[in-house]
Amino acid sequence: MIDNRLAPYGALGLRVALGLMFIAHAYLKLVIFTPAGFAGFLGQVGLPGFLAWPIMLAELIGGIAILIGFHGRLVSAALLPVLLGALAIHAPNGWVFNAPNGGWEYPAFLALTAFAHVLIGDGALAVTGTRSAISAKPALA
């Protein structure tokens, strides 16, 4: 059973956590790994290095959009390929993310979180209102 009074705030919590995670990962790639370092990593795993900037910008701009609820569920859907790509890269490393080169459980969790956000909606305090299955009310006949 869904508590319709509190569900929008649960969706808000999910949205804030997901948005902050994307922003933090963009910051990590920009400042700690550096764009050149991230491009080099992509090359090592068989992806073209030119994807570094689009991925970092998608994470940063997408994270901000999700955080403030600006068409967040659409942004989460658009960022699912980034998360699934990270999952594919980390899958051979094993389960635990602190394994050498990181495991696959964290990207899998984030992909499922983004998918849940797509299904649930933006929740409370979103800049743009998007309806969700929780808030949708049947039309009066």
UniProtKB/TrEMBL annotation:
<dbReference type="InterPro" id="IPR051907">
    <property type="entry name" value="DoxX-like_oxidoreductase"/>
</dbReference>
<keyword id="KW-0812">Transmembrane</keyword>
<feature type="transmembrane region" description="Helical">
    <location>
        <begin position="77"/>
        <end position="96"/>
    </location>
</feature>
<keyword id="KW-1133">Transmembrane helix</keyword>
<keyword id="KW-1003">Cell membrane</keyword>
<protein>
    <submittedName>
        <fullName>Oxidoreductase</fullName>
    </submittedName>
</protein>
<comment type="similarity">
    <text>Belongs to the DoxX family.</text>
</comment>
<feature type="transmembrane region" description="Helical">
    <location>
        <begin position="108"/>
        <end position="127"/>
    </location>
</feature>
<dbReference type="Pfam" id="PF07681">
    <property type="entry name" value="DoxX"/>
</dbReference>
<feature type="transmembrane region" description="Helical">
    <location>
        <begin position="12"/>
        <end position="38"/>
    </location>
</feature>
<keyword id="KW-0472">Membrane</keyword>
<dbReference type="InterPro" id="IPR032808">
    <property type="entry name" value="DoxX"/>
</dbReference>
<feature type="transmembrane region" description="Helical">
    <location>
        <begin position="50"/>
        <end position="70"/>
    </location>
</feature>
